[in-house]
Amino acid sequence: MKNKLYSTGNVLRSILLTLPMTLISMMMLSQGGQALGTLEDTCVYLAACAIYNIAFFLMLYKGEIDKWRAVVFATSAVLFSVSFMNNLIELRGSVTYSDADVLSCEIPFCHIVTTMVVIPAAIKQTIIFPGSIMTGFASISAMFVIIFGSSIILGRGFCSWGCFYGGWDDAFSRVAKNPIIKKVNVAYRWFSFAMLIIMALWSAATLAPEYCSWLCPFKLVTERDAIVDTETLLKNVVMVILFLGLVVVLPLITKKRIQCATFCPMGAFESLFNKISIFHVKNNESKCIKCGKCQRSCPLLAIDSKLKPLINCSKCGKCVDACPTGAMQFHIKGTPVGTKITTARLLFLYPAYTLMVTLIGGSVVNAIKIIINLF
Fold this sequence. Notes:
Blueprint (H helix, E strand, L loop, with lengths): L10 H19 L9 H24 L2 H28 L3 E2 L1 H5 L10 H10 L16 H15 L3 H4 L4 H7 L18 H16 L3 H6 L8 E2 L4 H25 L3 H6 L1 H9 L5 E5 L9 H5 L20 H5 L5 E5 L8 H34 L1
Parallel strand pairs: 1-2
Antiparallel strand pairs: 3-4
Helix pairs in contact: 1-2, 1-16, 2-3, 2-16, 3-8, 3-16, 5-9, 6-16, 8-11, 9-13
């Protein structure tokens, strides 16, 4: 089924508009040529390129962004975890880490940690994370460049296009056809901002990334503390409870991305960049019929009672796809609302999709190889 408002209208035009993304994805997924070592490697590489580019083509040809983004985003998040945990097992023999690993600064830098290191870095001139500054897998400097660069361009779009955790709660929010809990209090969307402040201050006081230590549910699908005493046992129990509650159960029964919308400090941090990002989702009020489909469909509770997208919009495109009149539109800051909406949509898609391929694509290639070797 096509969204006629935004469909390119024909196959050839969609193919031509997909070609730039094909070149970008082929370059990024090749990992500097490392993905092309053997015939098997080359076949996996070509398969990954095909998956990403077919989804991009369908976004353009069908005129539906969120549907195809979600398929690739969720699949990429799961495969990222497979690749990530496999890398850890190869590097140190386990997905758990010990005090020795912490002391030797061998912990990959996670983007969520950004919310906890900025204040100590500014005040104490120290990085409160046991990772490598310049070298190794997911170094601090490389992640900083990617995070701040993408945030300036896309704002909170990072959470729906680049976050290698976000695909988990996005996926579970789509399993049920209808929500069991049909109305979620929109005030909960501000709790993530409280989490951002609390975690930043707590981490600055203790000079330790406390959210990562105690509250991150995604440690279940990446790396976690080895259980050696009561404290590490408690941390693991909290991690499992939060993952099952925030990432699995609540998204299943509400059809909302509860972890991302209400709990993640990184989501709140990225929301602040929406103020300077050049890309936005706007409601063209001259076309709006006040049906409320955009608000009901929004997975992040980011549309207010006046049907205007708020600061915490992650630009997933779900409200744009749901709007029957085309009132919800991708928009470029500084241009009149309602003009060149197809161009604005396309100009947003290229950097957003490039971010996804760059941050997660290499792990997808590696994960496919791992799964093939398994069987």
